[in-house]
Design goal:
Elements: H1 13-25, E1 42-43, E2 49-50, H2 54-165
Antiparallel strand pairs: 1-2
Amino acid sequence: MSSSVFPSTGDHSFFTGYLDDIFSDFQPQSQLFFSSGSDNSTQKPNGSISGSDDGETNQWEVTLLIDERRKKRKISNRESARRSRVRKQKHLENLKNQVTRYKTGNQELINRLRFVNHNGQMLQRENERLRSASVMLQQTLTNLHQLLVVPELHHQNLRFCRAMQL
């Protein structure tokens, strides 16, 4: 006589989804094994079931072990994904900080370049001014030299001419 609410068949695939939902909601304190409700089975004091349903019991044990492993794997995968997201976030923050440092460094280099260009232009103008002044001073010197040399030659010519007349 079957005391189970569910139909007793050799195929337990009907119950798999239902039991997955039940077992995912809570962790049992001890391993529970379900029988098909056959009259030929008895429960032993250690919690295992004996009788003609040993094949079905082993199937449930395997199903429970697989479900437990699946749950552990899901938890492990979730934790791994969380760690991966944290690593990715830290990497992104490091990249943002690096971009900020590079932008600051670039701005400093641009400012230094502007300063050097400005000073270079000032030096070029000063150099041009000094060259122009040098040319003017050379011309003035040449003029002064001519003023000094020409009268001297003129006086020498006059002395020579007087000496010749004597």
